[in-house]
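Issue: ligand-bound run for FE2/S2 (inorganic) cluster - logging full I/O for the record.

Environment: standard queue, default settings, no custom constraints.

Inputs:
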Amino acid sequence: MYKILKKETIAPATFKMDVLAERIAKKAQPGQFVILRPTQDGERIPLTISDSNKDEGSVTIIFQVVGMTTRILSQMEIGDTLSDFVGPLGRASELKHLKKVLCIGGGVGTAVVYPDVKYLHENGAIVDVIIGARSKEYIILEDEIKQRCRNLYITTDDGTAGIKGFVTDKLKELLDNGEEYDEVYAIGPMIMMKFVSLTTKKYGVKTMVSLNPIMVDGTGMCGCCRVKISGEVKYACVDGPDFDGHEVDYDDVMRRLETYKEIEKENDEQHACKGIYHN
Ligand code: NAD
Ligand code: FES
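Outputs:
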């Protein structure tokens, strides 16, 4: 039952875990996610399937500790079992028709864009990638991505690796230099996806983003994950998580994400006081 097979710290407060989930590993496609609950009395969180191995029956998840549930998850060890691990959920990314793509990963969002990079590379597309991180130690999956793309550009906010600046600085430079792409795939903080989309709109380049609003059931029933796309209500768990970046109402998604921040912070502080997870 959903045993943790491998666990690795890949950046500050950022973990990579392989979980035994044979049925999900068999079916998972790029862009899809799982909803997991570390313990029976815990809350559910969605996490993108960063990779899967059909032979081992394992699914890879990458997460940053941002609240109580990710903290509990980070304290679990190899051999521990997760209470629930449901998936694959959501629509797979539509990548088959693409010949030349620019993928952009912001921070831990790089783990979400990685399966798209892998799929595109394996299916003969030309892939350029921009990874953006706060500083050098926050860059993840650099080697895995380097092996699967034509050009890898790194940007860091503080200039400790690659180009000093945001992913949008490199994006603008590439487009200004006449580089043409069928599509841009941008995944990271909401604010990054907003500014990437504003940039590519000016150049008329189709842009897909992956939205991660709060989710509960992951089946379109609870309404928690609703987002506005071209003024229409959609549910990220069943209509997405990928959407046309030029149609997303980012300010609305960001407002909704803020709603539970205070409660989450309180819960996390209480949990941190109580001590670590025990199976
Ligand atoms: P971060 O804040 O360190 O930002 C990563 C990069 O995004 C920066 O280095 C920069 O290049 C770019 N960026 C940030 N602000 C920007 C702006 N105003 N304009 C242009 N580019 C900008 O990222 P992090 O702390 O690793 O990421 C955490 C965030 O990512 C959380 O908000 C989390 O919810 C989100 N996330 C999203 C997904 C998804 O599926 N969309 C998945 C995982 C995490
Ligand atoms: Fe409930 Fe999407 S998570 S409708």
